[in-house]
Amino acid sequence: MGAGETSTPSRRRAVPWAVLALWIGLLAVVGPFAAKLSDVQHDRAVDYLPSSADSTRVAKIEDRLPGGETTELVLVYHREGGLRPADRATAARQVAAITRVNPLTGTPRAVPSADGSTLMYPVASNAPGTDEKKRDAFVNDVRDVARDTGAMSVVVGGPGALATDAGEVYNSLGGPLLYTTVAVVAVLLILIYRSPLLWLVPLAVAGVADYLSMGVAYGLNQAFGTVVSGQSSGVMTILVFGAGTDYALLIISRYREELRRVERPYDAMKEALRGCGPAVLASSGTVAAGLFCLLAADLNSSRGMGPTGTVGVLCALLAMLTLLPAVLVLLGRRVFWPLVPAYGSEPRQRRSLFAAMGSSAGRRPLVVLASGAALLGALALGTLNLPGALKQEDSFVHRPDSVTAMETLARAYPGQGTQPITVITPTGRADATLSAARGHTGVASAERGRSGGGWTEISVIARGAPQSAAETATIKALRADLGGSYVGGPSAQQLDLQDTNARDRLVVVPIVLVSVLLILILLLRSLVAPLLLVAAVIAVWGAALGIGGLVFGPLFGFEGTDPGLGLLSFVFLVALGVDYGIFLMHRMREESRSGAEPAAAALTALRTTGGVIASAGLVLAATFAVLTNMGLLQLVELGFVISVGVLLDTFLVRTYLVTSASVALGRKVWWPGGLSREPDPEKAGRQDPVPVG
After folding, report:
1. Cβ neighbour number for residue 116 with a 10 Å cutoff
2. 3 state SS for 241-306
3. 570, 541 Cβ separation under 8 angstroms
4. Between the CA of residue 226 and those of 129, 146, 170, 216, what are the distances in Å?
5. Of 121, 116, 113, nearest to 82 (Cα)?
6. pLDDT (tens digit per residue) in 201-229
7. Model confidence over 358-401: pLDDT tens digits?
8. What pTM was estimated for this model as a whole?
9. pLDDT per residue over 27-65, tens digit each?
10. Beta-ladder partners of 514
């Protein structure tokens, strides 16, 4: 149907209702599966690791040993100034009560500290196995019995308690994360649209898309074993609301424009989708492709985030291109009240902030470009100040009992490990492995454990504190010296997480860059423009990460940086940054095809798309900023870096640097495409202008 044609009344009535009915049917089918997504969510460190990691092999072999996986706890009794005989008796009674009601492996033995202030009881059970709910129940049962008694404090720590505390934080993300995201997006939409009704439409459609994405993500898990973690499901929700609202802003902006020149809402929506649909499809496809590159990661959590993030973006796209238009058409023009776009009216002319910003970039493009590049480069130097790798006990915003226990043990038992390192060795070499472990300078003690299936378990206590440089050196030395054996345990898992993340950065980053660059070349039919956009988003990533380095330690007091922060922030900022670049460059290309001079095309593109891009950037930054209010530092750090990066990209890079670079390059920005060549005056005079999209 051409621009001048109109649809029949029956089609105008039937199509929106049919789309609405299809969505109701789709949600009825997907609904039962969406509710099950939390059931397949796993957040143990070993679930994140690849199957080839030593600590993963240890965990899998332990599952096959008699009794299965062991849940290890440490009961920590402490009194400032020293424990009293009554305190020790109370501790013994509590431990005896725990032993009576829980099937433990071995009898817990008290280990007093040298200063007499602390008593620790290692407690372990095979009963929970790999069932996280049973593990949590066991930990909570122990905590119910082990309680403070006056001046003596009692806390339960150890790997099992840490895992339970982390699981509680992840399980609590769903509700608060969703509610906070909805509230933030609602406030921004109200401010953007200044309408009592309009803001509800994209928000409700985004909620529907989120529900759909949960069902699809569960289906992927059941069909292909896709890893679902608290982090990936939370980010999926953020992407649905952030990216979905961005697409809604673009569609509604174009729809409002078309309502002024097209009488029927149905026909106006058709023209709006025809005009902005290609840009929305291209931008969402680029984001999905960038996220999908995470499948090349070796880390299960990162690899799982690829398809779940892609599902979120595609579900948002589907909802915004079908359900949103149908609802808007059914509601008619009145949905924009009180600022209703009347047929035949002209939009109120306002002084455009982006026109002023573009003019300043156009007057001295090289100066603006050099100044902006220098600023981004200076900010990127902040990456040198990023704190070291985040330790497991430092990953909580509000420190739970398990972290308090680790801190108390570190003070009371200096120079002694309090968390076992697990060595799995062939049973035929168990004696030799045990002897070699005991003879190692970094080992305080080593004890033989269970045997089965040709493997034997050896529990090693290092002289260094958990996740200290000394303990890390001991783990690496044991792996090097104990050939044919595997070294695992909580600290080894954290070490493997760091190593795998380092490997993934080297592999995934180039794949993302090449994939995004190829897509941009195909979309823009140019080589220079795509290189410009990719260079811009890389600069944004470096600057955002650098700002993190300037504030994480000195201002926020963070003790470390999540090992996966660099990779995940890179993938999201590159994919989402290019997303906005497509909006701008798509309009710039259309202006150039219409015969506008390069500088005029760049400034017109900024003036016409700047407001929508700014609104979309604010919404996306705000949705990722929701993560900074969550209970785990890895989410806080990820949300902060992505939010800062999106704001830099929206208000500095996209507005000033890309525009000034395009003005400075002129037609060369479209090299080697046809737009890079000077037009033939005779042919140019006979060409009809191409409608702006």
Report:
1. 14
2. HHHHHHHHHHHHHHHHHHHCCCCCHHHHHHHHHHHHHHHHHHHHHHHHHHHHHHHHCCCHHHHHHH
3. yes
4. 22, 38, 18, 11
5. 116
6. 999 999 999 999 999 999 998 988 888 88
7. 566 667 888 888 998 999 999 999 999 998 888 877 788 888 88
8. 0.83
9. 999 888 988 888 888 777 677 788 888 988 998 898 888
10. none
